[in-house]
Amino acid sequence: MFNDIGALELVTIVVLAILVFGPDKLPKVIQDVTGFIRKVRAFSDSAKQDIRSELGPEFKDFEFEDLNPKTFIRKQLTENEDLNEIRTSFDLRKELNDVTDAVNHPQTDAAPASPSGAATGADLLKKPAAPASEQRARFDADAT
């Protein structure tokens, strides 16, 4: 419950409690708070037992922690055999690296114009060859 409280925070809480309640009343306040926490836990446990008994025997292994969405998803991902098979056969890092490489280094069909790979001025001035009439797409006047 208080897993993230450090030593400095704990000392600060104790000093504030002594200043607010005083050293005489502090033991009684601590006793009242611990009694209240025990009652809340007992009420919670009895409510859980009542719910389990009402659900019936098919839910005997039901855990209320499974209702937490993170816990539910983690449990389904680790226990489902089909998902385990998919996870072992699919490497997400490799797929992402392949996509990144394809975006950063696109493959072109045309060969470079010069040995250095850069286009020369003469290559830029050349008019590209017209596609053959069979390959040219038909023009539809109504579509434009």
Automatic annotation (TrEMBL):
It is a single-pass membrane protein. The keyword Membrane applies. Residues 108-123 have a biased composition (Low complexity). Residues 135-144 have a biased composition (Basic and acidic residues). Residues 99-144 are annotated as: Disordered. The chain crosses the membrane at residues 6-22. Keywords: Cell membrane, Membrane, Protein transport, Translocation, Transmembrane, Transmembrane helix, Transport. InterPro entries: TatA/B/E (IPR003369), TatB (IPR018448). It is found in: Cell membrane; Membrane. Part of the twin-arginine translocation (Tat) system that transports large folded proteins containing a characteristic twin-arginine motif in their signal peptide across membranes. Together with TatC, TatB is part of a receptor directly interacting with Tat signal peptides. TatB may form an oligomeric binding site that transiently accommodates folded Tat precursor proteins before their translocation. The Tat system comprises two distinct complexes: a TatABC complex, containing multiple copies of TatA, TatB and TatC subunits, and a separate TatA complex, containing only TatA subunits. Substrates initially bind to the TatABC complex, which probably triggers association of the separate TatA complex to form the active translocon. PANTHER family: SEC-INDEPENDENT PROTEIN TRANSLOCASE PROTEIN TATA, CHLOROPLASTIC. Belongs to the TatB family. NCBIfam families: PRK01371.1-1, PRK01371.1-4. This is Sec-independent protein translocase protein TatB. It comes from Streptomyces virginiae (Streptomyces cinnamonensis).
